[in-house]
Design a protein that fits this description.
The chain has 365 residues and is mainly beta. The protein has helices at residues 5-21, 45-63, 88-99, and strands at 114-122, 126-135, 148-157, 162-174, 184-199, 205-218, 224-238, 241-255, 261-268, 274-278, 283-296, 303-312, 319-326, 331-337, 346-351. Strand 11 and strand 12 (303-312) form a beta hairpin. The longest helix has 19 residues, at 45-63. The relative contact order is 0.18.
Length: 365
């Protein structure tokens, strides 16, 4: 299909809009609020662990672009993140006619570089979407590194149950076939500014601010999918809860040939650890996987280790921490270092599902 590249960029936009505006899970930290490192103990260890697992699931949902199956299964999230719908291609289908208006304005598409001025289009139900772009090389049908795309949404309702507002800027780092036909490998730098999605039925609003670098690779047979998402700071906001990921890197894989086997890994973007700020927890913690999670289908991971480090313990010896070890798809071990001496002081064996409750459940191995 020999589609002008200006059109291909707008298709890229629809995928990213669906991925970031799909709603759900987590909140954002007010820029005026300063949160301090949190002391981890046996009273809060389960809640802290659940918050980090959810934050990683949110990041991986944002990274699950262009595929019907999310890289991280629904069960890997311990709260309502698992309600996020796979709306990527549904959103594209509803936008094809609209975005044809944004094809390159010149009759000769072999232009070294073009600017697409801001163009405002009506959304399917109500509201508007304004798009502008810079295309570095208009020769061919592939997106090129350096291409940029800007979108501004004003109460945009496309009939998917969400109303979107705010803006998004996208820079192509590595090119990709415009319609995500496997095999492909793309990388984008994305900046969100008050980018929000309100679920019409509930009135709940998800708001995102910050930066992220998004990579996805799919094999020729479309059976193996790899995603990475990284950034310096990404904040998300919902009523009653707020969080921010700082200096984060999250990677996931999905192998459809092996019964939807998946992996999930996390660390800092430039060093060992990412940081989670949470107003619900009332503080910050650092985290990274010392062993990637592995699981199958919609089940929780059956193996993997996640280390979460908090503030210096009251003893002053060192930092408090909790280490989660997946025992199987139902059970986990939590080893809590309350005095910061590097050795576990309290051990809890409980279920994955009980983590957000803060109350251990008996687990049969």
């Amino acid at each position: 299909m020999n589609t002008p590249k200006a059109f291909s960029l707008t298709l890229l936009l629809t995928v990213l809009t669906a991925g970031c505006g799909g709603g759900g899970g987590g909140g954002g930290v007010d820029e005026g609020v300063t949160l301090e490192p949190l002391v981890i103990d046996q009273d809060n260890a389960m809640l802290v662990t659940a918050a980090v697992v959810d934050a990683v699931a949110i990041a991986q949902d944002l990274g699950s672009v262009g595929v019907d199956d999310p890289v991280v299964p629904a069960a890997a999230a311990t709260n309502d993140v698992n309600a996020l719908p796979p709306t990527f291609f549904e959103f594209i289908d509803g936008q094809l006619d609209r975005f044809q208006l944004l094809q390159a304005p010149a009759a000769d598409f072999h232009i070294a570089a073009i600017e697409i001025p801001p163009t405002t289009e009506e959304c399917a139900i109500s509201g508007t979407m304004t798009i502008s772009a810079t295309i570095v090389d208009e020769t061919g049908t592939f997106i090129s590194p350096g291409d940029t795309l800007n979108i501004s949404l004003n109460d945009c309702n496309d009939g998917d149950g969400e109303v979107a507002n705010g803006s998004m800027a996208i820079v192509v780092v590595e090119g990709v076939d415009f319609n995500f036909t496997p095999p492909y490998d793309f990388t984008f730098d994305i900046t969100l500014t008050n980018f929000s999605s309100t679920e019409i039925a509930s009135g709940e609003t998800f708001t995102g601010n910050g930066d992220l670098t998004l990579r996805e690779a799919v094999t020729a047979d479309a059976l193996f999918i790899e995603t990475e998402i990284a950034g310096t700071k990404l904040t998300v906001t919902e009523p009653g809860e707020s969080l921010a990921l700082k200096d984060y890197w999250v990677r996931g894989t999905l192998d459809l040939a092996l019964g939807d086997a998946y992996t999930a890994d996390s660390r800092g973007r430039d060093d060992c650890c990412a940081t989670l700020e949470s107003t619900v927890l009332g503080g910050t913690v650092d985290f990274h996987n010392t062993q990637p999670f592995e699981g199958v289908g919609d089940n929780f991971p059956y193996t993997g280790v996640l280390l979460i480090t908090g503030a210096v313990a009251p003893s002053g010896i060192g930092n408090s921490s909790v280490e989660l070890t997946a025992l199987d798809e139902f059970c986990v071990d939590l080893l809590i270092d309350e005095n910061g001496d590097g050795a576990g002081d309290v051990g809890i064996t409980t279920t994955w599902e009980s983590l957000p409750t803060g109350i251990p459940e008996d687990c049969v191995l």
